Structures are given as C-alpha cells and as structure tokens.
Amino acid sequence: MKIYINRQPVEGPWGGGNKTLGALCSKIIEKGHDLVYDLQPEIDLIFCYDPRPDNTGVWYQDFINYKANHPKTKILQRVGDVGTHSKPELTKLLRNIIDIKTTDFFIFPSQWSKNYLNYNQKNFKVIENKPLSTFYKKRRKSSIGNKIRVVTHHWSTNEKKGFDIYSELGSILQTKKIAGKEVELTYIGRYNKKFSSEGWSLVDPIDVSTLSEVLPKHDVYLTASIEEAGANHVLESLACGLPVLYRTNGGSINEYCKNYGLEYNDTQSLLDNLEIMIKDYEIHKSRVTKYTDKMEMSIAEYVDCIENLLRK
User: How is residue 44 annotated by DSSP?
Assistant: First the structure.
C-alpha cells in the first residue's frame, strides 16, 4: 500500500515527536509499504503527522481536497502537540478538523490531550509515547551518595517548560541542603535566558546516545513543564532509571509518571517532595525499575492502526 506522511524525520537534538516519526517511517518501510512524502497519485492512506503547513505549504486543507477527488483514500490524524505552548493556531486547527469529520481515525498520545480538544467520537485510540530503547542501555542501578544530583532537559525555551520553577529552585539550593545533603542541579538543552540560571549547571543540547549516558549519572529527574500533550522527556528519564518529580497540571506527564514519582504544585511542595524522595529513595527507585516500555511498542500500535484502517 502507498502511504503518505506529511513530515520527514530530521537528524539532531529535536523533540520526542521527531524520534517517533523516524522510528515509524522505518517500520512502515520494513512492513513492505510504499512510503512517500509528496501528494502523488494513488495514495491509499494519508498520515497527517502535523496538520499545519510543511515547508512546501502543504497542509490539512490539501488532504481534504485530495480526498474529495480520491474518496477511497483514508486519512489518519496523529495528534502530537495540541498547541498549549504558544501555538493557539494549532489548537484551533485541530478543533476545526474534529468538527469537519474528514479524518477517518485519530491517534492521541494521552487521555489529557483528547480531553483538552473536547474529542468525544469513537474513531480514535490513545497510544502513549514511549522512549527509545537506547535509554535503557546504562540504566541507573546505584543508590544515592552524599550529594544529590537532579537533572532535567528540554529542547524548547517556551516558558511553559517551567523556567520559573527552575530559576527559583536554583537560587534556593545554593544555600539550602535537603535532607542534610547538598543538591546539584543540571539543565540539559536550551535555557530561556529571561529566567535566572543561577545555581544550575547548563549543558548544551546533546544527541540521543550521549543523553542516554548522561541522564543515568543523576539521582532524580525534575520536570516543571505544564500542559504537555505527550511528554517524552520524562519517559526518557524513566528508561534511565530516575524517579521523577513532576508538576501539577503537567498534562500527559501526570498520566505517564503517576506510579514513578511525586507530584508538586509550587516550589515549597517541590522542596518537600524532594526531601521525601531522598529519604525514601530506594522505594521510589524500585518503582521505576518496573517501567519497561519502549518506543517499539507504540510504533507497533501505530502500524496496527494504519493497517486496520487500510483493510476497511
């Protein structure tokens, strides 16, 4: 079957959606399908990875037009980002797509993302994001020492990634111990320079292989991001064996991490829960060892959705 995807994977330190895309494209080809990246004749299924215009200007309206002339062509819409991080045009477009009802099937990365878009039809499946297997290779096994190493990583500088919390925490922990221990903070990625990075060690974006080696050298993973439709950064930390401190209103993060860490709602509750996690570290670390999901699992679900839709 001929399958069209409206985005191509790119190399380098990009977000988790790009990693998923690369793995999905490889699996589609492996399954024997003809994968194309342009709207050519005789396409059996349009996989809309992002409904906004691509670098050639092709967007969801073009898929509506294509289907009008090729009614047997199926449209599968993957909902990744829902526009909460400064992309209101994406939120509006996705809601319009839902109302138009041209799409044959939807895939959501979390129940939260489905609810955020007020989706109430039956032609959908929630397929949670999963981490690359690379992140399991050097999974943390050791206990904590005299210094607690906290880490986070983001490739975006959007304020909803939680720079307010990171800035305040960095300032506090320069002079404050937690559970009698010094806390070392490391931020990997692109930092929003509107916020003070005092107290943090900043590391530029690194590739997946290096990241999978660096994360397990820490003790605790912290995320202050909110309203994430399908957060991959926390999944990568779980694969590396780190218990997670995550923020109230994290969106998918609360779904993904509810059994593998502690939730906080402000800086004080973050400090309180960090202390709890340090004191009961072995308990929290043992829970994380039960997390074994890998991206191959979600890719298999994606391909099943594609092939089931093609059979209809």
Answer: S
- Can you say whether the dihedral through the CA atoms of 100, 228, 55, 296 is positive or negative? negative
Average pLDDT of the chain, as a whole number: 95
User: How far is the CA of 255 from the CAs of 73, 159, 163, 248, 249, in angstroms?
Assistant: 34, 21, 22, 11, 10
- Per-residue DSSP letter, 43: -
Q: How far is CA 130 from CA 39, 187, 231, in A?
A: 29, 22, 9
Amino acid at 310: L
Q: Which two tokens stand for residue 297?
A: 């699992």
Q: In the chain, where do the E strands start and end?
A: 2-5, 34-36, 45-48, 74-78, 105-108, 124-126, 147-154, 182-189, 200-203, 220-223, 244-247, 261-264
DSSP 191: -
Cα distance between residue 311 and residue 152, in whole Å: 43
Q: List CB contacts of 189: < 8 A, sequence separation 6 or more.
A: 13, 153, 154, 155, 156, 203, 204, 205
**Residue tagged 């995320």 (tokens):** 223
Q: Give residue-wise pLDDT tens across range 81-133.
A: 999 999 999 999 999 999 999 999 999 999 999 999 999 999 999 999 999 99
**Number of C-beta neighbours around residue 112 at 10 A:** 23
Question: What are 253-311's pLDDT values in tens digits?
Answer: 999 999 999 999 999 999 999 999 999 999 999 999 999 999 999 999 999 999 999 99
Maximum CA pair distance of the chain?
Answer: 69
Half-sphere exposure of 278 (CA within 13 A, CB side): 20
* Residue bearing tokens 């904590």: 144
Query: For residues 83, 89, 95 and 98, what is the CA-based torsion angle, rounded to 10 degrees?
Result: -100
Q: What is the pLDDT of residue 222?
A: 98
